[in-house]
Design goal:
It is a single chain. The chain has 227 residues and is an alpha/beta fold. It has a single domain, classed as Rossmann fold, CATH 3.40.50. It contains 8 helices and 8 strands, in the order E-H-E-H-E-H-E-H-H-E-H-E-E-E-H-H. It starts with a strand and ends in a 9-residue tail after the last helix.
Length: 227
């Protein structure tokens, strides 16, 4: 089977997340994509505004009507209070798969630009194949420039028809593929949605109805009071 792992804060989950997952499924013929809310992202100074439990509940509602998308708790907050590292999550996912399964890690291009700062980023990039989706017009040369020094990159014939791919080579001679999806049409971002909600926007105008209803029911992302 072809399995996608899509981690993130999902604070809140929105149509852009679903569009990325569906695009990856369609282009790479993935059998399933697991969306995994992260407990603590080490590179983000501010913790998510919504609790982990709330983000899990919203994600569950966001994908309820989406065939092939499933919730994963594999990147839940750690009992030892350490940050959640993607390389640990990928390793944990692999323990749940069959040896013949093919694992892909899904990311938006904006997130991938910080990959060089991630924990053990070079090892992570050859631990599975990657799928990076961007909006039309994104300068794809920035993807190669973001790679850590231990990773070299070359153009290669994509093993999946109809996709753009780069071959990533680790100094230890391990390698992987990075698939580029340069036509993600959905422009939403969690930060812009939170800002809109904090200004008093109705969640039903910017989010899926099930997610918007949860936010309203639980009083999340309330407008900030003016001093």
């Amino acid at each position: 089977m072809k399995i996608g792992f899509f981690g993130g804060s999902f604070d809140p989950p929105h149509r852009g997340h679903i569009a990325l997952a569906r695009l990856a499924m369609d282009r790479l013929s993935l059998d399933r994509v697991f969306l995994a809310p992260v407990g603590v992202q080490p590179l983000k100074r501010d913790r998510p505004q919504a609790s982990f439990a709330d983000r899990v509940a919203m994600t569950e509602r966001a994908i309820a009507a989406e065939p092939g998308l499933a919730l994963s708790l594999i990147d839940a907050p750690r009992s030892d209070q350490r940050p959640n590292y993607t390389i640990d999550a990928v390793k944990a996912v692999r323990t749940t798969l069959q040896p013949s399964d093919h694992l892909f890690c899904l990311l938006g291009a904006d997130s991938f630009l910080a990959i060089g700062q991630w924990h053990r980023s070079a090892d992570l990039l050859v631990s599975c194949d990657f799928v990076v989706a961007s909006r039309p017009g994104f300068d794809l040369s920035r993807i190669a420039a973001a790679l850590p020094p231990a990773i070299s990159v070359a153009a290669c014939d994509p093993p999946e028809s109809g996709s753009l791919a780069l071959c990533l080579h680790h100094a230890s001679r391990r390698q992987s593929h990075l698939f580029l999806l340069p036509d993600l049409a959905e422009l939403a971002s969690a930060s812009s949605i939170r800002s809109a909600l904090e200004r008093g926007a109705d969640p039903r105008t910017v989010l899926q109805p099930a997610v918007a209803d949860y936010i309203l029911e639980h009083g999340l992302y309330q407008p900030k009071s003016k001093a």
